[in-house]
Amino acid sequence: MPFSALGLSTDILKSVTAQGYAKPYPIQALAIPAILEGKDIFGIAETGSGKTASFVLPILQILQKSKGSKNRSVKVLVLVPTRELAMQVADVFKTFSLALPNKPKTLAVYGGVSINPQMMQLQNTDILVATPGRLLDLISSKAVQLSSVEILVMDEADKMLNLGFREEMNQLFALLPPQRQSLLFSATLKDEIVNIKEGLLKNPITIEIQKETQNIELITQVAYRVSDERKGVMLRYLIKNRKMKQVLIFVSSTHRADHVVVKLLKNGIHAAAMHSKKSQGARTDALRNFKEGRLRVLVATDLASRGIDIQFLPYVINYEMPRSPTDYIHRIGRTGRAESAGEAISLISPEDEHQFKIIQKKMRKQVNTIETDTLDLMGY
Ligand code: AMP
Predict the structure, then answer these.
(1) 326 to each of 12, 313, 321, how far by Cα in Å?
(2) Same domain for 29 and 160?
(3) Tell me, what's the pLDDT at 215?
(4) Measured between alpha carbons, how far is 146 from 186 in angstroms, rounded to an integer?
(5) Per-residue pLDDT tens digits for 279-325
(6) Ligand 1 test: best mutation among 3, 4, 25, 30, most atoms within 8 Å of CB?
(7) N or C terminus: fewer CB in 10 A for the chain?
């Protein structure tokens, strides 16, 4: 089914073509017509499924018919768990608005940066993409109010719960007008999500997509058996020897991330770390530089494993194994996206063996494992 069969206007279709989207992903084919009809949606889908465009496109079309927002009353509220996702979703709204005659104003607000500029920019905002905590602060400062919200989107609702935003979410729900359209997206279907769905959505259409697991087929996975002491040099060997231009490396702690970066820099490999102990400015810069190809290596904790969309990332390296198989799948899902192939490499020390077995069992996939004892790593 082509995009033109989904009920989208010519203006929106132009932006879709400009983005190089040839045909809709399954979630888009199902969600776009339903959202245009005003239906509530319960989408069980992960990052990589194309869920962002599945709500951005119809929302932009719906807004084309309405007048600009008055003062501090937003029309569309998108709640997201992290600052990075807030910026990313706002960017998708902005990109698809470029060619529209009636351009809505989109703003992302999130914590970790000064609140004053956000307060000033809120004037006449139509689409507000927000993390829950900062949004409540802005509401209590009377910088924004939710009584005119026509469409609510909850993106990665399960992640929001995991991050402990339940209380904030409840407070925000209480401020929304009862007459509205609600779209709820979650990667998992746990009890708490079902509770939210029941409290928030009216006769929703449920759409379940398991894109990330299908995507795994696109990803070449390989593991190297290597002692903990040799992981650093093995990493440099891989980056240099394989001439990797862009690689995302996962580690298990903020301390380790910084340590790996220092070692890489000492060896002439341009790298930066992204984790929760970095300032928001440093995180944003690192991610932007990486996305725009100015940074060769980004070393991240699991903070970056979800929700961050980097197009055509060729390599992901697990320097250390994640705690859960789900995290592993999310990590390697950063590559092999939007139908381009990628490679996920894991460095497995004897301590990681057991965890790696569990991960392979969960994926129902045996990963090709290579011994490195005899590999000469001198000079790397
Ligand atoms: P998302 O799941 O929303 O994070 O989207 C994952 C990636 O797929 C993003 O890089 C999108 O730009 C890309 N994408 C979304 N829809 C399509 C489409 N219909 N055709 C090609 N790429 C798409």
Answers:
(1) 35, 20, 12
(2) yes
(3) 59
(4) 23
(5) 888 888 888 899 888 999 999 998 765 556 676 688 999 999 998 88
(6) 25
(7) N
Residue nearest ligand 1's atom 18 by CA? 21
Q: Is residue 380 part of a domain?
A: no
CATH number of the domain to which 232 belongs: 3.40.50.300
- Return d(Cα 302, Cα 253) in angstroms, integer: 9
Question: What are the pLDDT digits (tens) for 186-240?
Answer: 988 888 899 999 999 999 999 988 654 445 777 889 999 999 999 999 999 999 9
Residue of the CA atom closest to atom 11 of ligand 1: 50
Number of domains in the chain: 2
What secondary structure, in 3-state letters, does 131-163 show? CHHHHHHHHHCCCCECCCCCEEEECCHHHHHHC
Look at residue 207 in the predicted model and tell me its pLDDT.
93
- Cα(16) to centroid of ligand 1, in Å? 11
Q: Is 61 in the pocket of ligand 1 (CB under 6 A)?
A: no
**149 inside domain:** yes
What does the pLDDT average to over 120-144? 96
Enter the tokens of residue 48: 């990589």
Shared domain for 148 and 244, answered yes or no, is: no
50 lines ligand 1 (CB under 6 A): yes
Cα(18)–Cα(204) distance, integer angstroms = 31
Nearest CA to ligand 1 atom 16: 50
Q: Report the alpha-carbon distance of residue 360 to residue 191 in Å, rounded.
A: 27
Residue 378 in any domain: the answer is no
Domain region containing 175: 3-209
Q: Are residues 222 and 363 in the same domain?
A: yes
